[in-house]
C-alpha cells in the first residue's frame, strides 16, 4: 500500500493520472522471476527467517513500480497517439522485465533507471497539483512519496519500496514479522556506507581504506561475529555434539559415503526423544525411544527412514532409503510409527506400552 500526498489529497480535489498497473503488466516475465526465487537461497530474505506467507520480491518490485509510474495514455502531451503510447508502454515493459530478475536486486544501473521513472511521474503529479491548497506539504517534487504496509509480514513490500527509492514504513502485530522487518529495512540503512567495526577489519589497512557500498560494512561485521559465536559455541558445547567416523561397514549400505571412509564428518541433524524401559522382560535392559516416526523423508524418490536395531542396552539407528519404502502406489507407508495418542509401541518387540490411568 503506497501512501503519498496525492492519495491523501484525493478527497481534496487533487489530480491523479492513471498508473501503469491500471492498464497492463508483463505478467509472464513477473511470474517467471517469482517462480525462480523459490530456488534462490544465498542472500534471499527467505533465509533470514521462515515466513509462511512471504510475497515474491519480483512481484512486489514490479507492482510498486507500476503503481508509481504513469501509464502513457495518461500523458497525452508527450504521447499524443495510440502508437506512441504503445511504444512507450512497451519500453516500460522491457524495463520491468529487466527489473524483476533476482540479479536486478544488486544492479544499480537498472534500479536507478526505475527510480528515475518513478521520479519523473512524481514530478508530473506535483506539477499537476501545484495549485492544490496543501501543495507545499503533499506535493514536494524533491521528496518522493512514502510507502506504508500495515500488515508487513515477511517484509517483501517495504523492502522493495525501499529498494526503489521510497521511504518505507511497516508494521505488524506479530513480533516475528516486526523482527524480520527491522533486520531488513530498519537496521541496514542506519549503517549504509559505513565500514565494519570489528577489530580485525579495523586493523587491516586495505579493508579500512576501501569504500563500503550500501550495507557491505554491516554484512562484514555480521559474518565476523557470526563466525566468532560459532567458534565459541563449539568450544563450549562441541563435546556434546561429537562427529561421526565413517567406517567401511557404514559405506557398505551407503555408497555415497565411500569417499569419506576413515574421515570424521559433522552431524547435521540429531533425533531427540525421551526413552522408557521395554515392557518385555526379555528386553527389559533396552531403552525404547518415544518417537512418532523414524521417517527422515517422505518425498517421492527420496524416501528415507532410520531402522532401529539392538546393541546391548541401547538401540542403534541405521538409515535406509529407496523404493522399498513405497510398496503401495505413490504413497509412502511409514512402517516406523511407534506412538499414538493412547499408546507406545516397543520398536524391539512390538509390545504396546499403555499409559497409567
Helix share, percent: 25-40%
**SSE topology string:** EHHHHHHEHEHHHHEHEEEEEEEE
CA-to-CA gap between the ends? 56 Å
What structural class do the secondary elements suggest? alpha+beta
Radius of gyration: 29 Å
Low-confidence stretches: 323-343
> How would you write the strand order of the largest sheet?
1-2-3
The biggest beta sheet is recorded as: 3 strands, mixed
- Global morphology: elongated
What is this entry, summarized?
By secondary structure, the chain is α+β, with helices and mostly antiparallel strands. It has helices at 5-8, 27-36, 57-68, 82-99, 108-128, 135-138, 156-163, 175-190, 199-203, 205-209, 216-237, 248-253, and strands at 2-3, 146-149, 167-170, 244-245, 264-265, 274-277, 287-290, 295-297, 304-311, 314-321, 344-345, 352-353.
Question: Secondary-structure map with pairings?
Answer:
Layout lengths: L1 E2 L1 H4 L18 H10 L20 H12 L13 H18 L8 H21 L6 H4 L7 E4 L6 H8 L3 E4 L4 H16 L8 H5 L1 H5 L6 H22 L6 E2 L2 H6 L10 E2 L8 E4 L9 E4 L4 E3 L6 E8 L2 E8 L22 E2 L6 E2 L4
Parallel strand pairs: 2-3
Antiparallel strand pairs: 1-2, 4-5, 6-7, 8-9, 9-10, 11-12
What does this structure look like?
The chain is an alpha+beta fold and 357 residues long. The chain is built from twelve helices and twelve strands. The chain has three domains: 189 residues, no CATH class; 39 residues, no CATH class; 80 residues, no CATH class. 37% of the residues lie in helices and 13% in strands. The longest helix is centred in the middle third of the chain and has 22 residues. The protein is elongated and about 90 Å long.
Amino acid at each position: 500500500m503506497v501512501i503519498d500526498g496525492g492519495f491523501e489529497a484525493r478527497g481534496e480535489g487533487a489530480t491523479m493520472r492513471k498508473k501503469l498497473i491500471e492498464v497492463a503488466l508483463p505478467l509472464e516475465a513477473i511470474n517467471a522471476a517469482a517462480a525462480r526465487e523459490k530456488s534462490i537461497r544465498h542472500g534471499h530474505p527467505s533465509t533470514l527467517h521462515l515466513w509462511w506467507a512471504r510475497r515474491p520480491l519480483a512481484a512486489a518490485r514490479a507492482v510498486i513500480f507500476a503503481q508509481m509510474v504513469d501509464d502513457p495514455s495518461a500523458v497525452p502531451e508527450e504521447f499524443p497517439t495510440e502508437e506512441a503510447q504503445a511504444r512507450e508502454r512497451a519500453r516500460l515493459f522491457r524495463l520491468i522485465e529487466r527489473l524483476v530478475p533476482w540479479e536486478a536486486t544488486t544492479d544499480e544501473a537498472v534500479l536507478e533507471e526505475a527510480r528515475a521513472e518513478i521520479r519523473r511521474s512524481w514530478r508530473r503529479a506535483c506539477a499537476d497539483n501545484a495549485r492544490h491548497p496543501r501543495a507545499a506539504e503533499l506535493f514536494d517534487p524533491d521528496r518522493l512519496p512514502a510507502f506504508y504496509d500495515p500488515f508487513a509480514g515477511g517484509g517483501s513490500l517495504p523492502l522493495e519500496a525501499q529498494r526503489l527509492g521510497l521511504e518505507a514504513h511497516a508494521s505488524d502485530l506479530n513480533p516475528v514479522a516486526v523482527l524480520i522487518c527491522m533486520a531488513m529495512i530498519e537496521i541496514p540503512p542506519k549503517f549504509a556506507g559505513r565500514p565494519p567495526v570489528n577489530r580485525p577489519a579495523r586493523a587491516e589497512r586495505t579493508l579500512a581504506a576501501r569504500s563500503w557500498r550500501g550495507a557491505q560494512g554491516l554484512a562484514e561485521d555480521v559474518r565476523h561475529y557470526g563466525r566468532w559465536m560459532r567458534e565459541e559455541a563449539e568450544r563450549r558445547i562441541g563435546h556434546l555434539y561429537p562427529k561421526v567416523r565413517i567406517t567401511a561397514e557404514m559405506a557398505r549400505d551407503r555408497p555415497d559415503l565411500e569417499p569419506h571412509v576413515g574421515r570424521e564428518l559433522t552431524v547435521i541433524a540429531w533425533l531427540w526423544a525421551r526413552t522408557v524401559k521395554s515392557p518385555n522382560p526379555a528386553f527389559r535392559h533396552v531403552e525404547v525411544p518415544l518417537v512418532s516416526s523414524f521417517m527422515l523423508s517422505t518425498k517421492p524418490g527420496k524416501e528415507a527412514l532410520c531402522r532401529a536395531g539392538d546393541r546391548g542396552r541401547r538401540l542403534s539407528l541405521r538409515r535406509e532409503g529407496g523404493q522399498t519404502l513405497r510398496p503401495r502406489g505413490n504413497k509412502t507407508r511409514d512402517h516406523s510409527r511407534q506412538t499414538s495418542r493412547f499408546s507406545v509401541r516397543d520398536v524391539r518387540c512390538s509390545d504396546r506400552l499403555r499409559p497409567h490411568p
